[in-house]
Amino acid sequence: MSMAAASHCPPEWLELRESADAAARATELLDPLRGYLDASGAAGPLVIRDLGCGTGSMGRWLNGRLAGPQHWILHDRDPELLARASAGMAGAAADGSPATVTTQEKDITHLDADDLSDTSLVTTSAVVDLLTGDEMDGIAEACAGAGCPALLTLSVAGRVELAPADPLDAEITDAFNAHQRRTDRGRTLLGPDGASAATGAFERRGAVVHTRPSPWRLGADQAALVAEWLRGWVAAACEQRPELAPQGEAYLRRRLQACEAGELHVVVHHSDLLALPNGALR
User: Fold this and answer.
1) C-alpha 34, offset from chain centre
2) Mean pLDDT of the chain
3) CA distance 218 to 183
4) Do 149 and 38 meet the contact criterion of CB atoms below 8 Å apart?
5) What is 11-276's CATH superfamily?
6) Can you say how many angstroms the Cα of residue 126 is from the centroid of all Cα atoms in its chain?
7) What is the Cα–Cα distance from 65 to 73, expressed in whole angstroms?
8) Distance, first Cα to last Cα, the chain
9) Tally: H helices and E strands in the chain
10) 274 phi and psi, to 5 degrees?
11) So where are the chain's domains?
């Protein structure tokens, strides 16, 4: 991500979660997006800016689902991730048209309408919850000023379902959500409030906003992802509430044992959002 104070995501984690992200994203939002892009009748290729691109999973998911020539501009603060993302974006559009790629190591929270003047679409994946309310407002303002739609995917929703259930599930969830909303170096993160904050930010600027759920549904076939997610989830909860650490360690052992045995099923809820500029097709 490009936010100066945002947490660094190691590429191994981003690669591990890519298939779950791809399966979760709300394909129902693609028809209104395609309708808007077709109606806009812009000359030349679609110019798509992926904010906080990571290893480029959003581009790999979306470029083959949109027709016509595309030019992707990948934004991230990490040059290693930008290099990986650019190298991995070799696919073509849905109709076989070419998709080209450039990268920008630029702070996405400082983008304005002028920066987006040539942009057909802004996308993000798992970024909104790492923004502050002011930063989200700034991105919505830039999109509104440029008349640019935005597809914001996989914002954490603050709800997790684990089966079989455990008495500590709710307490770990609450502590994790508090960690997601923490104040970090003067920045109070949106966390699970990200999707509602983004909806409000775009609607205040006249956009038509569509939202859909985009849950991870993980079972024995995603055991490596479940185990890594569990470690991070419990660690964040215990960092937020250190008094949970003894119980949290035992809880994590139980959950990892169930995961290894193929007995644990997890639903991690997210939200996807499509904001179409004022006057767009509904």
Assistant:
1) 20
2) 93
3) 30
4) no
5) Vaccinia Virus protein VP39 (3.40.50.150)
6) 2
7) 17
8) 31
9) 9, 10
10) -120, 120
11) 11-276
